[in-house]
Amino acid sequence: MDKAIFFDNAATTRTDPEVLESMKEWQGDNFGSPATLYAFGSQAKQAIEQARQQLADLIGADQKDIFFTSGATESNNWAIKGVAEALAEKGRHIITDQAEHHSILMPCRYLEKKGWEITYLPVDAYGLVNPSDVEQAIREDTVLVSIVHANHEIGTIQPIEEIASITREKGVYLHVNAAQSVGHIPVDVTALSCDLLSLSGHKFYGPKGVGALYIRRGVRIDPLLHGGGQEKKRRAGTHNVPGIVGLGKAAVMARKNLDAEIERLSALRDHIIEQLEKNMDDIRLNGHRTHRLPNNVNISIEGIEGESIMLSLSYPTAENARPVFISTGSACVSGTLEPSHILLALGLPAELAHGSVRFSLSRHDTREDADYALKALFEVADRLRSMSPVYKRGAKQCATGKSGEGCDCEAAS
Fold it and tell me: Which residues contact 139 (CB under 8 A, 6 or more apart)?
C-alpha cells in the first residue's frame, strides 16, 4: 500500500522525530523520580524545569505559572472544577458556549448536577461568540467564563481579547481552551489577557499524554488531583518526565517555525477551499472564512453522509492507491450517529451536519498530497451522490445551512 495521506491532525499529530529523540534519555538510563532529593532524581527535576521554561516562552507566560497535566482534557476539567470549588462561596454561575469541546461541556454538566448554574451562549453561523452576549450573561454570582480559542472542528478563532476586556472589567476569571491554537498560531497569555489556558502536547507534534494548564498568579483554584505535593501542591502524581521533556522540545520547535508554517499552511488551506468550491456543487464551508486556523477546512456536502466519505477515502482502490484519512464531525465523538453539536449550533439542519468532513493539515503535508486527496474526494462524492435517493443537484445553501429557493441570505452560495 502506498503511503497514506493523514489529514486528521486536529485529532492528533505525528510526534516529531526530534521530540522523540529528546525523550529517549528519560525513558532509559535516567529514570529517576524528580521528587527525590538525591542527584539522580534532581537531574529529572532540572529537565522538567527546563521544559516548563520552554513552554512558557511559547505562550508568553512566566514559567512559575505553568503546571503540567496529562493533556487538555485534564487541564479543562481542572480549570472549570477547580475554580468552581475555590469560588463557590462567591457564586455558582459559569458561562461557556454551545460549540465547545466535550471536555468543557461535560465538566459543566457535572457541575450542574452539583447545583451550579451554567449559561451556554449561542454562536453565529460561523461559530463566533458575540462578546456583548458574554457581557450581558455575566451576573454578580458569575465566577468563570470559558471560551475556546480556536474551535477544534470548524477552525473558527474567537475574539478572546474582546471577551477578556469584559471579564477583566467585571472581575470574572476567563479560561481559554487553546489545545488547537498553541503551536499553530501566536498564543500569548498577556495579549489574550486570560486567567487560565489549557494546552495539549500531541496537538503540535509533541507526545500524547502530556499537557499543561497556565494559571495566572493569584488565581484561586482548587486541585483536581489530590495526593503528593507535586507541581507546587496543585497537581498530585509522579511527573511524566519523558512526556514533559518532549512537550518542551515541541514548544521550542513550534516557536522557531511558527510564522513560516502559518504562511505555508494558510496557502494550502486556501488552495483546498478554492478547489472544493470550484469543482463541487452544493457544498458549504463551515466556520469563518478568514478568522480560522491555517490548517483547518471543514465542509458539508449535500446529499452524502460524512461517515461514508470518510470510510470510502480510507480504503485504497485501484484508482486511489493511497488511503486518505480525514474526519467527520468531531473526532472525539465520531463513533456516534448523532450529528455534530457544533454544526447544529451554527444552525445547520441535521442532514447537512451529517454530511460534514474535516481536513486538518500538518507540517508534513504538501500541495501534491492535497491535490491527490481532493481528486479522491471528488470521485468518491460523485459515486456516492449517484446512489443517493435524496440528493438533487443544484440545491443552494445559505450561511445558516437552509436549502431551497427563495433564500435571501447575502452569503448564499
Answer: 91, 93
